[in-house]
Amino acid sequence: MASSAASLYLDPQIRDWVLFPITLVMILVGVLRHYVVLLLQSPPKKLSRAAIREQRALMRAQILRTTSANSPVPPSVYRSISQHLSQAFVDGTYLKDGPPKGDAPSAPPNPLTDPSQMDGMMAGMKTQMVMMVPQMVIMGWINFFFQGFVLIKLPFPLTLGFKSMLQRGVETPDMDVRWVSSLSWYFLNFFGLNGLYRLILGNENSADSSRDMTTPFAAAAAAPQAPQAQDFNKSFKAERDNLEFAEGLYEWVGKDVETRILKKYGRLS
Amino acid sequence: MSATPDIAAQLLFPPNVQYNNARLYTVKFLSACFAGAVAGVLGLENTLGFALFILSTLLTSACIYVKCKGRPGKYVPGGWWELVNPGQDNMFSFVLVWTLFYGIVHVYD
Questions:
Q1: What is the structure's pLDDT at A24?
Q2: Nearest-CA distance from B67 to chain A in Å?
Q3: Are residues A82 and A152 in the same domain?
Q4: By CB count within 10 A, which of A36, A90, B90, B109 is most buried?
């Protein structure tokens, strides 16, 4: 049984020619990915004024609602906005195509045939492609050039199960799992450089590998962001009910503020 | 009152909160990196290394707490856990830098 306490002596040239280059390449490829995604992004499609007005009307109602329990606006302002919006929702004055005519059922356009939806999905898929390809290329590069030798010793122990993954090219059955090959250095870098990307590229960078884990959800979530498929008539009706409910909860922060201040400073018995 | 966390969050100005969060993340990342460098250079193994990480996280959050003048709710949504939590990214960064320095100092001649 080989003594696991004996340490291997590694040529410093391995450090110079493998350790640093892999890290450097991964950092640079990450930055490159970020800029490629930035260049590939098509500018968001401009909506017509009526369509924007539709969305904004819904947002106005929501903004009013969220702060209604502790509202900064006085009662007269709140009530007038609330009633105006309710009336507009019922009449359908904010709808993109004008008030609903008769009882023609407005079916939301099919996601696959609606061109604006396609743009959203294509953008998501393009980003995913750009993320995947460099990772595959780098893994292949590392496997080709840096295979078959031990690179570094991990300061913490791992179970034997990791041995096959982390010591891929090195066929020694009883060497400590802490001595690992270059592929494991790649994995360490893959996870550990996200923080660095956030530091140098800002918060919304596309080099973040933790975002890759969530891309299936992100692609599904990107579709509702183009709400052309949303039936605004129905959502207006729902919003109207919400507005009424919120009006019941309404409470002005400045109510009886004179009495409160006087009491606070002890001028009122 | 059940609406208190909403009210507390409502009093925060979103662009300022975003700026605060970004700064907080930067501080945590840098402290994780330095902790990794220290652990690697000192040659700490297994549990000692992770203990250093936890220690540095606590030290960083104590400093931030003092900077918040004891009221983290005024600067960041969510209480003291937001300050203490290092985040998954920083854990991996710590391990990366730790391994790097450990390798440079102790494994290579």
A1: 92
A2: 21
A3: no
A4: B90
